[in-house]
Amino acid sequence: MYPVELRYTKEHEWVKVEDGNKVRVGITDFAQSELGDVVFVELPDLDLEVETGDNLAVVESVKAVSDIYAPISGIVAEVNDKLSDSPELVNQDPYGQGWIAILEIQDASQIGALLTAEQYEAYIEESK
Amino acid sequence: MITREVPLIFTAGAPGRTGYMPPASDVQEESVDTLIPAAYLRDEAPPLPELSELEVVRHFINLSRLNHAVDVGFYPLGSCTMKYNPKVNEAAAALPGFARIHPYQPEESVQGALAMMWHLGRYLCEISGLHAASLQPAAGAQGELAGLMVIKAYHEAQGAGQQRREVIVPDSAHGTNPASAAMCGYKVITVPSDSQGGMDLEALQAAVGPATAGLMLTNPNTLGLFDANIVEIARIVHEAGGLLYYDGANANAILGISRPGEMGFDVVHFNLHKTFSTPHGGGGPGAGPIVVCKELEPFLPVPVVVKKADDTYALDYDRPQSVGRVRSFYGNFGVLVRAYTYIRRLGPDGLKQVSETAVLHANYLLSKLKPYFDLPYDRVCMHEFVLSGKRQKAKGVRTLDIAKRMLDFGIHAPTVYFPLIVDEALMIEPTETETLETLDAFVEVMTTIAREVEENPEVVKEAPHHTPVGRLDETRAARQPNLRWRPS
């Protein structure tokens, strides 16, 4: 449920460290199951500069519209255009094809502040 | 309720069938292509259905019987105040002096209509404890936008338009609040709720500053809870130089009891279609008048109905600081007549009784349902309350399933999954117009469903069983909407 190679936020985003100074961002399996069927994803503009906690994207499901926050400060280097036509990828494959954006980050030390899979799982259990 | 689908009208009828027999024309007939150039004519006739009058009548009557309305059954849709709309409102709105006038008529020939609008504005001022009203906004969300435009115009007139760029909303806010603020060009700052469901004062103190244009708040809030810190909240915002906007969506809880103006609010909108019993939710247009304090009056939309020294009424357009028009003509006039009628019929004591009874009904249901559902904020509520389906979720039944199951019992489902701060939320607003028998029948339905979740969850998960259609594909409807019928 919570891949160990990823890091997590309490707002239910996941972060995967890619090559160099890039990180891939998406929402967790828990988040997508809480949201229900996703019908629209508003992707950020390329080159948008975000700070930790800024709005990065918007995910709309049959139940609600939710902001997705930047887990780390950085610049949007790539977005998952596939989600424009196939928002259901967020539900079907949240850690794979359902990724949202890739950020180019300056300060890799911020990654250390994110939750590990174990900590995230404990957080979910605690808030249930 | 009928329990089968009504076929599309396009699939009924037969070629050449009509519902009329016009007399022979005594004017010489001309062929249409001699009157209109060929370029403007269709190549073929549109594929309109051809039916008898009786077929048409039956089609629409049967469709109407598929509809749920407060005239059909209980409608506890939280935050929407689906109260009964007294038929006397309709009688008043149908009076020729209201129904058969034209917006371009000279003022002296519509004095009665203008007098009604002026008085309605005064009543809304009295009810809110504020100074001046505009009846123009066509619904609550437009009232929010108009109110924020007034706030913005005020800050601009103070020379602070460039600095004051932020509007604060609580995390329990109606979704329209941040949407209206964003539409007005503001940056939205969200402040969390405290453990009691009210606004977190420390977080608010940290959020306000020289950039604050205003705070938007519903009181009671979307949890149905009255924020008793409101005077302190108003002080914090005012000291920072911001203004307070009251989202009147929940005003049904406070009529004649507490006034937003005295809580410290500067702008209020009322949803006449909720609080003052005019049809809504597919039954008719809304109306979202705004009421403002004295300092904000110059910025109200034009025209404003004024009473002149000779006791006649006029439309005042001469307001140089006005934000301008927000709607054509004078708002949804027929809705205003209905709300005016409702207020006059009940009077101050009657309106107070409306709110007292609405609050009593909500607390009655709350206390009856508390043993069966989780209640995240366990306090005396106002006109509505929010349960959580968390306990049922652990059994694999979601709030959506519970809502669908309620349809089987002839009840409109409550608002679900809102406010967002409550997991699996069920937001229930019974209103004051239901009888004790109806409330008890609702409790019976809810406890039955709670028992089914324990004993036979499949019956809930597969609901509804007794409606013309079952679970519609909401996801596909949102992803690939198909809004237009075409002949196959």
Q: What does it look like?
A:
The complex is a heterodimer of chains A (about 130) and B (about 500). Chain A is an alpha+beta fold and about 130 residues long. Chain A has one domain (about 5-110): RNA polymerase II/Efflux pump adaptor protein, barrel-sandwich hybrid domain (OB fold (Dihydrolipoamide Acetyltransferase, E2P)), CATH 2.40.50.100. In chain A, about 25% of the residues lie in helices and about 35% in strands. Chain A is built from five helices and nine strands; from the N terminus they run βββαβββββααβαα. Chain A has helices spanning about 30-35, 80-85, 90, 110, 115-125; strands at about 5-10, 15, 20-25, 40, 50, 55-60, 65-70, 75-80, 100-105. Chain A is globular and about 35 Å long. The mean pLDDT of chain B is about 95. Chain B has 17 helices and twelve strands. Chain B starts with about 30 loop residues before the first helix and ends in a 9-residue tail after the last helix. Helices cover about 35% and strands about 10% of the residues of chain B. By secondary structure, chain B is α/β, with parallel strands linked by helices. The interface between A and B is small, with 12 and 10 residues.
